[in-house]
Design a protein that fits this description.
Blueprint (H helix, E strand, L loop, with lengths): L4 E6 L2 E6 L2 E6 L3 E5 L7 E6 L5 E6 L6 E6 L6 E2 L9 E5 L5 E5 L9 E5 L7 E2 L7 E4 L6 E5 L18 E5 L7 E3 L7 E9 L2 E8 L6 E6 L8 E2 L14 E5 L4 E5 L2 E5 L9 E3 L1 E3 L21 E2 L5 E6 L2 E6 L5 E5 L6 E7 L3 E6 L6 E6 L11 E3 L7 E6 L5 E6 L3 E6 L33 E6 L6 E5 L5 E7 L5 E7 L5 E3 L6 E7 L5 E7 L4 E3 L6 E3 L3 E7 L67 E4 L2 E7 L7 E7 L1
Parallel strand pairs: 4-25
Antiparallel strand pairs: 1-2, 2-3, 3-4, 5-6, 6-7, 7-8, 9-10, 10-11, 11-12, 13-14, 14-15, 15-16, 17-18, 18-19, 19-20, 21-22, 22-23, 23-24, 26-27, 27-28, 28-29, 30-31, 31-32, 32-33, 34-35, 35-36, 36-37, 38-39, 39-40, 40-41, 42-43, 43-46, 44-45, 47-48, 48-49
Length: 640
């Protein structure tokens, strides 16, 4: 079934929009037939009072313009040449001209009403001022206009600001308008004048009671006898608002949830009835939806083997192999939106979803059908607010969360079974922050490590041994600093003072240094174009040792650097880079993570801060997009 919109009726005929085309059907329902086959957006069709023609707005020639087509079909006749994006049809004048609304001559984009000859010709400006909708009394002098609220109320439900729709009435046709129904605190739209058995009534759509419904008041005294003719949103009614109401002067037709409803009159006992309209031809709405890239594909997070990754696609979570292997859906449930999906250790994935209405952290096995695979588990349901960042620990024992209320949290998820130890090629004495592993904690335990007052923590990164967190802490002055936090006891150590913009901290693979980006370089140079001093890109990568005895890999020493591994001392950087371990065999576990011995936290020293980097042993790679005005980027590779 197609989604039916913008209905209008006259006599026994009904016109509507479906599948971006214009259709006609009997008022009593049945098979609908196409009037256009342009497959371009069509809006607000209006049947002539005699039912012989239809005026509508279409983008068939580019910008929206007003067209007329015979009710029996044929080639549409273009009536306007304004090139204005707000142009649309608004009905017919009592004299048989098409009413069109456009802002083509208004510098403030306000709409004006024009009468356009139905056979083509010069438009005539109507003397009603700026408006967003217009209605004439059938056979009478009254003119009803809507000012403001030109956007469909379904787009800004229960809006009560100054741009809400207001109704103005000229009851005698003198050109003097007065505002009516000013005491209704809601969005008023779709003004109509309908002849009733007891006299003409003003009908309109309003959401002043919470849901968009059709109401009416007497034309002679609009402040009395307010009637509600539909019950959308009420107990037993549909949960969708009434939209796009229109009239032929006796009956009202409108859309709700893609279906068409008819009010035969405006008596107190009147009830809407659904019109069963069936469109013929192929149903394009039933075609499979094809996701667009990269808009619908989230970041791909590779696992530690590099052979597969976790990705979120339009609220679902999938495990993708990086060659021609299969893909596995880890979460694909209607009504559930997942995000921030990551691999967790070697056998699990973690993400945040809203299956119960609140954010919760979900841990799921990569293969739920494997022997002894754990069940999918939800943690901290409703206790984390809105999660802005999620960072899993390298060993899979915990995840760090940055939330919208300024908290830095750690959720303990339980570690994966330890792989068989593989001897590493680097047996130098370790120093720095590695080796301070947190004690075992209960699975599902949620701990708060920090609560900020100047903003949300960001750029959370784990140390290789899963014992420390590096993160960016905003300050009230609008700057930021890098902080190290020991997960075991929540102790903080300031890496950089809050004097600059420091961001994106990341540990090197051996855990001895912290790399980061900082906007702290202000060295001017002469500009070749403006012939004046200018500042180049201030963002640059920095590196800081994490222990007092760790030498800088870029610093000079009095004895020079060793050129042969035999000359290396215990505190010297290696003369040659260590040989990386062989990649794991297909189906095997991940390779080693580097050194894991450590030093105590009392020797953490530094005055610099971090960079979101992709790190390997001995090399860090930073990528930062420069300011939007420059359109350039910064790519730096530094040997560590």
């Amino acid at each position: 079934m197609s989604f039916l919109r913008h209905p209008h009726l006259s006599g026994d005929s009904l016109v509507l929009v479906a599948e971006d085309d214009l259709w006609t059907a009997p008022v009593e329902g049945g098979r609908a037939h196409r009037l256009t086959a342009d497959a371009v957006p069509v809006t607000a069709p209006r049947l002539a009072p005699d039912g012989g023609a239809v005026a509508f707005a279409s983008r068939r020639d580019g910008a929206p313009e007003v067209y007329r087509v015979d009710a029996d079909g044929g080639t549409p006749t273009r009536l306007t040449w304004w090139g204005d994006a707000a142009t649309r049809a608004a009905g017919w004048t009592p004299g048989g001209e098409v009413v069109a609304l456009s802002a083509h001559e208004d510098a403030t984009s306000r709409l004006w009403a024009y009468a356009v000859p139905a056979t083509g010709g010069a438009p005539r400006l109507l003397p009603h001022g700026t408006l967003t909708a217009l209605a004439h009394q059938p056979g009478g002098p009254a003119v009803l206009t809507q000012v403001e609220g030109g956007r469909d109320a379904a787009h800004w439900k229960r809006y009560r600001g100054g741009r809400a729709g207001r109704l103005w009435l000229d009851a005698t046709g003198s050109g003097e308008f007065r505002r009516i129904l000013a005491d209704l605190a809601g969005q008023l739209e779709c003004p109509m004048i309908v002849e009733d058995g007891t006299g003409p009534r003003l009908a309109f759509v309003s959401d002043h009671e919470g849901w968009g419904n059709v109401y009416s008041v007497p034309l002679a005294d609009p402040g009395t006898d307010l009637r509600r003719h539909t019950d959308h949103g009420a107990v037993g009614g549909t949960g969708f608002a009434a939209r796009h109401a229109s009239t032929d002067g006796r009956r009202i037709v409108y859309e709700s949830a893609g279906e068409i409803f008819l009010l035969d009159d405006l008596s107190a006992a009147s009830q809407p009835r659904r019109i069963d309209v069936r469109t013929g031809g192929p149903q394009r709405a039933r075609e499979p939806f094809r996701a667009s890239l990269p808009g619908d594909l989230g970041p791909i997070r590779p696992d530690r083997t590099g052979r597969a990754g976790i990705v979120a696609v339009r609220g679902t979570v999938h495990r993708l192999t990086h060659r021609d292997g299969p893909a596995r859906a880890l979460l694909a449930e209607p009504g559930v939106r997942a995000r921030l999906a990551h691999p967790l250790g070697t056998r699990r994935a973690v993400w945040v979803d809203d299956a119960t209405g609140e954010d919760a952290v979900v841990v799921a096995p990569l293969d739920p059908h494997a022997p002894a695979a754990p069940e999918r588990a939800r943690y901290a349901d409703g206790a984390v607010g809105r999660v802005l960042e999620l960072a899993p620990a390298p060993d899979g024992s915990a995840v760090a969360l940055a939330t919208h209320d300024g908290r830095l949290l750690v959720l303990h998820t339980g570690a994966d079974p330890a792989p068989e130890p593989v001897p590493g090629p680097d047996d130098r004495p370790a120093d720095g922050v590695v080796g301070d592993a947190a004690p075992d904690r209960a699975v599902g335990e949620l701990r708060e490590l920090h609560r900020g007052t100047a903003g949300e923590p960001s750029d959370v990164s784990w140390s290789p041994d899963s014992a420390w967190l590096a993160w960016c802490d905003p300050t009230p002055e609008g700057l930021s600093r890098i902080v190290l936090t020991r997960v075991a006891d929540g102790e903080h150590a300031e890496v950089t003072p809050a004097r600059f913009h420091d961001s994106d901290p990341v540990f090197t693979a051996d855990g001895r240094h912290l790399a980061f980006l900082s906007r702290r370089v202000f060295d001017p140079s002469y500009d070749e174009h403006s012939f004046d001093l200018a500042f180049g890109t201030g963002w640059k990568p920095f590196l800081v040792p994490l222990a007092a005895r760790t030498p800088s890999p870029f610093g000079a020493g009095p004895d020079g650097r060793p050129v042969d591994p035999a000359d290396e001392g215990p505190d010297d950087p290696p003369a040659t880079p260590p040989t990386p371990p062989a990649p794991p065999e297909p189906g095997g576990g991940p390779g080693p993570d580097g050194d894991t011995a450590g030093d105590d936290a009392g020797r953490v020293v530094a005055t610099a801060a971090g960079a979101r980097a992709h790190t390997g042993r001995g090399v860090s790679l930073w990528v930062r997009q420069a300011a939007a005005s420059s359109g350039s980027g910064l790519l730096t590779v530094g040997g560590l």
